[in-house]
Design goal:
The chain is an alpha/beta fold and 212 residues long. Helices cover 53% and strands 14% of the residues. It has a six-stranded parallel β-sheet with strand order 2-1-3-4-5-6, sandwiched between helices.
Length: 212
Amino acid sequence: MTATRILLADDHALVRRGLRLILDAEPDLDVVAEAADGAEAVSLVGAGGIDLAILDIAMPRMTGLQAAREIAQRAPDVRILVLSMYDNEQYLFEALKAGASGYVLKSVADQDLMAACRAAMRGEPFLYPAAVTALIRDHLRRGRLPDSVLTPREEEIVKLIAEGNSTKEIADLLMISAKTVDRHRANILAKLGMRDRLDLTRYAIRAGLVEP
């Protein structure tokens, strides 16, 4: 039996080490790559040789949700699991919209992660019990998952604003002009019907772009 080749992405080395010990103890699961942020995870998946990407939801540079969207688009054959500390409906829905096959709570990763990996490779979803309840409740209430109103670039700028970066710092990080950053921010505020940085920070937390 060929082992599932896994990429493990989490910005905490100790967490990666613990998860790796859990996974590598299973003969059918093999951690072949590690990443400390979402951007590195996307790059490693792009290099090939990965069957399953396990992404922490909150990472610097690019979150697990943003990375999941990129991976789902660039490497649709790679399965994705999202890891989170938070039993949060919004994060759950965003993870599924981003292309994840499952949502695993870190608090029970030692119990659920192996089953989630195997379910993902079988093409089956994996959700903890409370998440299933939340998903059914939301489906009955709205009938479908809401689409994001922001473009990937706009989400990137919202994340950087929420993390406390100035216009100049954002411009330098994204290699665009300060005027372009201001134009993006104005468009984002108009789209979301918001007024200021505080509103954008609250939105970023709800959307899973930054940690609360």
